[in-house]
Design a protein that fits this description.
It is a single chain. The protein is α/β, with parallel strands linked by helices. The protein has helices at about 15-25, 55-60, 75-85, 95-105, 120-135, 160-170, 230-245, 255, and strands spanning about 5-10, 30-35, 50, 65, 85-90, 110-115, 140-150, 180, 195-200, 205-215, 220-225, 250. The longest helix is centred in the middle third of the chain and has 16 residues, at about 120-135.
Length: about 260
């Protein structure tokens, strides 16, 4: 057993989740090795090194937890791969090229990538995949409804898309070929096999997601509600600790929760 404390760095230390991570890292028995801010400005109330560049942080820690922005992903992937620093990535909205950068990094370092680090969301997403496999699109219409705070800039949310992708995976299809999002006006009847999305915004709701399967005779609804962003921080710290000593590869929260054992 490695008695040396795990050194965790936080990209975006002054963000909403970053500040929670700064509390949860020591609470989880790890060492807060530092963080990044846009210009390297120290964060009030935090006594740890702060850097402007991810490479400087990477050299000081064993793993970086990253909830920043899609525009930073390619640079972060390169820097962390070069320093051999493991990566917990919660940034969503990645382009194909940005995802390719993550995949390339995962050939050299351990990466846990997830749209949502909540254990509950992980389980709902897994159930959505199983239900997609059991409930064919010819008989059951699949819809995903999500609601977030009014400041959220992307829709559907990364978590909603992950749930929709799970349904599509269960059905053996590509989500991109069956997605229906933002219906408006005279759209015509619902396409057979479509996976629909609806996004609501208002107030300060942390996150609500429902996966809805409806046939002519019944309806099944899987719903998850987040009451506090701290659940994402605790899940990310759990993923960082799980990554310790793992070989290079691309992992997800199902791996962290040991849901893929024997599969």
């Amino acid at each position: 057993m490695n008695a040396k404390p795990l050194r965790i760095g936080i990209a975006g230390l002054n963000g909403r989740v970053g500040r929670l991570l700064a509390e949860e890292v020591p609470a989880g028995g790890a060492v807060l090795a530092g963080g990044t801010t846009r210009d390297g400005t120290p964060v009030a109330g935090l006594d740890c090194p702060v850097h402007a560049h991810i490479a400087d942080l990477a050299r000081e820690c064993d793993v970086v937890i990253d909830f920043t922005h899609a525009s930073t992903v390619a640079a972060h992937a390169t820097a962390l791969a070069e320093t051999g620093t493991a990566w917990v990535l919660g940034t969503t909205g990645l382009s194909p090229a940005q995802q390719q950068a993550v995949d390339a990094a995962a050939r050299q370092i351990g990466v846990v990538q997830a749209a949502n680090f909540s254990p509950g969301v992980t389980l709902v997403t897994r159930l959505a995949r199983q239900m997609g496999a059991a409930l064919p699109g010819s008989d059951y219409d699949a819809e995903i409804l999500e609601m977030h705070h009014r400041q959220k800039v992307d829709a559907p949310s990364g978590t909603a898309l992950a749930m929709g992708r799970a349904v599509a995976d269960g059905r053996g299809i590509r989500l991109e070929d069956h997605i229906e999002s933002g219906r408006d006006g005279h759209t015509g009847p619902r396409a057979d096999g479509a996976i629909g999305f609806a996004a609501l915004r208002g107030g300060q709701i942390v996150g609500e997601h429902s996966v809805i399967f409806t046939s002519g005779h019944e309806q099944i609804v899987l719903t998850h509600r987040s009451f506090d962003r701290r659940v994402y921080a605790t899940g990310a710290v759990r993923a960082a600790k799980w990554l310790r000593g793992r070989p290079a590869g691309l992992y997800d929260m199902e791996d962290v929760l040991d849901l893929n054992a024997g599969s």
